[in-house]
Every structure is written in structure tokens, then in C-alpha cells.
Amino acid sequence: MFPPPPSRPLRVARKQPSPRTLHSAEIELLQQHSLTSLVQRELERQIVSGELASGAKLNEADIAGELRVSRGPVREAFRALEQAGLVRLEKNRGVFVRQVSLEEANEIYEVRAALDGLIGRLAARRIRPEQLARVRAIVKRMHAVGRARDADAYFPLNLEFHEVLAEAAGNRALRANYRRVVNELDLFRRETLVRNAQNIPISTRDHEAILNAVVKGDSALAERLLFEHVINSRERLHLALKNPPARAPRSARKAA
Amino acid sequence: MFPPPPSRPLRVARKQPSPRTLHSAEIELLQQHSLTSLVQRELERQIVSGELASGAKLNEADIAGELRVSRGPVREAFRALEQAGLVRLEKNRGVFVRQVSLEEANEIYEVRAALDGLIGRLAARRIRPEQLARVRAIVKRMHAVGRARDADAYFPLNLEFHEVLAEAAGNRALRANYRRVVNELDLFRRETLVRNAQNIPISTRDHEAILNAVVKGDSALAERLLFEHVINSRERLHLALKNPPARAPRSARKAA
DNA sequence: AGATTGCGGATTGTTGACAATCTGCAATAT
DNA sequence: ATATTGCAGATTGTCAACAATCCGCAATCT
Questions:
Q1: A101: which of A68, A112, B99, B219 lies 20 to 30 Å off by Cα?
Q2: In a domain, A255, yes or no
Q3: What is the C-alpha to C-alpha distance for residues A48 and A99, in angstroms, rounded to an integer?
Q4: Which bases of chain D are contacted by protein, using any atom under 7 A from a CB?
Q5: How far is the C-alpha of A219 from the C-alpha of A232, rounded, in Å?
Q6: B151 near B196, Cβ under 8 Å?
Q7: Which residues in 142-161 of chain B line strand C, with CB less than 7 A from it?
Q8: CATH number at residue B174
Q9: What is the pLDDT of residues A3-40, one digit of tens each?
């Protein structure tokens, strides 16, 4: 096992006798973040992007070495990531990328449905014109992608659709909670790797109906449609898991 | 400023040559928790109990000294508490017990309403007999306390009522999210110190109606009633803030 | 007088070292 | 052959020291 080539260091050069003039914005931005927060962000990125597989073990020393940082900030980042639901800590054993079981995912889906319902209710009333334009554009692209049965292209569009609506709801607490829940569900989806192109037309129809409700400002309808959309997504996921489409459905990877 | 008398140490005696026999349960329980998790739990307790006032500054060295622990575990606990929404970190400045503004509280109330709605929907279907008995008993005590206009006694009953329902919903992810949200709201309520005895009868009537819906297993009704109960609580809070009952309403304490 | 600059103490950020625990494997015993 | 014991290396938990930053106050300048 070779030590990976040390990637770009996170460190914000401690001593900065460099005469190069920094614009004040740059200075403040760099000074704002501690090493811990940078490590946290980087690990979060690697986890949600799938670079770090579900269930993978995170070695303190290795990560510290790769990011050119001592173990302290890494440990602090671990504590934050645990609260965020992205990793699991086992005392004296190590930390692992969280594995979300089907049962957990089912529960999380319900929470997400409730939050998405509220998002619909609020967004229908508060969405701003430029946000509405973005949603329209996304749905338009969904149609194109759907005709091509391109599941890989559809996936990020789906995320973006819901992201814009969450923003349009104009409630920061709601958005923060929503993000956390979606992150956890992504952990599960990444593990199961189920992306059924068959469902794209159904999903797109859902999105179109939601968009229409938001356009009309019908908050009750938008709420109901979004809630049901999430629950239906869950059911479609169950079906896909029972009838594995082509690839293996559940690679029950354990910790390394 | 005298150094506070060092309270009981958290430390789980490193070397334990003590011959006293420990029951296996004790051993496992102590070994399970790292100092970090114990510090975290202790600080969380102090914050939600109000021992640490909203906005108070938490000094690493002081806390470490009081708990007989080095600064490392304290810093790790801070990171976890930040993600839990209980403290705010300012780089190179320190950590402070989070202050929840009225605007934030309004947003959080909406999130709580959505989660409580889901709790009602699920609890109406899944509540078990002994949980139902507990809810009945709580509502009964609420009536007694309400007749006495005893706001201090009513407050914990209110918490317990919702806690039991959250448990009855039988969804761990929901319960975890709900707890976090309620914690944040408690932060706000503790700051405003509004406990209006006038509202007890109204609140109790709400709870009774919710209980009836749950008994009937009417999930749609329970969902609606719980959602509206939370929103109405928020409105009552607004009224109480506008018409300060007796004591000063908003003691805008800044950091120490 | 009011604003600015320059210490000095206090506090936070980071690091490396040490202690404790776990894991895997080999040696031994049954 | 199987189970148990006892290392040795690797990994995590904790700590104390060092570096960097911030804050308040006095000295200085305009």
C-alpha cells in the first residue's frame, strides 16, 4: 500500500511574509475558516460525492497527512460530521462513513416528505420571479433528458429542482434541516446505486405538476403534491430494489 | 476572580488499579463514552437547563479545568454542539451559547410544525396502548395544573406531551430531527422567559383535541391539529411579546 | 480633546508526543 | 484440530506546549 501522493495542502500558510498584495476579500475569507472547517467541508464533499464509499473507514493519520494538517482538526471535523449524520464514530475503533439501512432510509424519507411538504406550502407563496424561471428551465431540461432516458443526467437535475424550491421557501432553518436529510438519503442511494430510467417520465410529470401548483400560488396543492412525490419516490425505490433492473442492487459492502 | 472550586472530575480514571469489582454493565458503559462525549452531554445539559445563559461565552480553559479534562475533548465537544445548533463558533473569538432571534424562532416554528404534523399522522396509526395511557395521564395533569394557573408546572408537562407523541410516531429519524428543533426553540423561549398562564386553557384544549384524534386513529386530523397547534403557539408567543405580561420580556443579555 | 499606534496579557488554533486500546497472528495448551 | 493466550504493530484518546490572534489600555501624535 503506497502512501498516496500528498495532495494540495489545505493549510493557509501560517507565516505569510509573502509581499504579494491580497485583496481584502481574499484575506477575510481565508482568515474566516479554521483548518477544522476546511477539513470538514472537504470530507463532506468526498462523502456526498461518493469518493468515500459508504462504510469506508476514515483513518485519522492518513487524512491528516493527505490534507497536510495535524490530527487535531481532523478529529474535530469528525465530531461535526457525526452530528451531521455523515459518519459514525466507534470509540477506539475508528470512524466510518455512515451506512444507511433500508429501514432507516424509509424513516428518513418520511421526514423528508414532511419537510418537502412545507417547502411546497411556503414556496408557492414566496417564490421570486427569477427562482421561478430557474425551476421552469430545470423542468424543461428534464423533459429533454427524459426523452433520452439518460438517468445520469436526470439525477443532478432532480437535486437542483428540489434545491431551488427549498431556497424559494425563504426559511433558512427549513433549508438547513432539509439539506441534512437529503444528504443522508443520498448516502443510501449511493449505496444502492438504483437509478431507474423508467421512472423518469413519472418523476418529471410530478415535477411539472408541482411547478404548476407553485405558479398558481396554490400552497395547499403544492404541499400535498410535494409530500406525495417524496413518498412515491420511496415506493418506486422499493420496487426497483425488488426487481433489480440490470446491475447488482445491493452490494452489501462492509467496512474496509 | 477566584478559580472555581474544581467540581467532580469527569475523568474515567485512566489507570484503574482499584481492586473494587465493577459489574460488567458499568464497565461497558464507562468504556463506551469518550471524554468528548461526556463533555458534550454535560454542556448540552447546562445549556438546555439554562445554567448557561443564552449568549454566554464558553471559555475552553475554564470548562476544561472545571471538568478536569484537557482542552482537546472540550474543543471536540464544541464542534458537535455547533452542529446541534446549541452554540456558535467565532474563529479566534470563542464559542457562545447560541442566541435565537425572533426571526429565526419564527422559521424554526414552521419546521417544528411540519415535523409535529408528521408526528401526529404517524402516532395516530402506531401509538401503543401504554403510550396512549401516558398521554392521557399527562393531559389529565394538565387540567389540574391549568385550574391552578401554574405556568411553571405546565411547562414540563407540555414538553412531555409532545415527547411521548414523538416517541409514539415510531420513527427514529423523525424523533432525532424533532429533538434538535425543540432544543433550538427552547433556547429562544429561555431567553424570552415568556410563560403566559392565560394560554394554558387554550393549549390544554388543543392537547385534548389532539389526544382524541390520536385515540380515534384519525391520522389526517391529528396531523392538522398538531400543525396548527404549533403555529398557534407561535402566534400566542408573539402576542405575549407585544404585551409584556408583568416581567420584562426581552432581557437582551449580551455576551459576558 | 480625540484619534492612532503600540505594547502586554489572555484566549484560541495547531501541533507533536505519550498513553491506552484494539487487531491480527503466532505460539501454546487442551 | 480447535481454542486460548500473549505479544507486536497499528490506531485512537488525551494531554501539554507552542504559535497566532485578539482585546484593552496606555502612550503618543495631531
A1: B219
A2: no
A3: 12
A4: 11-17, 19-23
A5: 20
A6: yes
A7: none
A8: 1.20.120.530
A9: 344 344 444 433 333 333 445 555 555 567 889 999 99
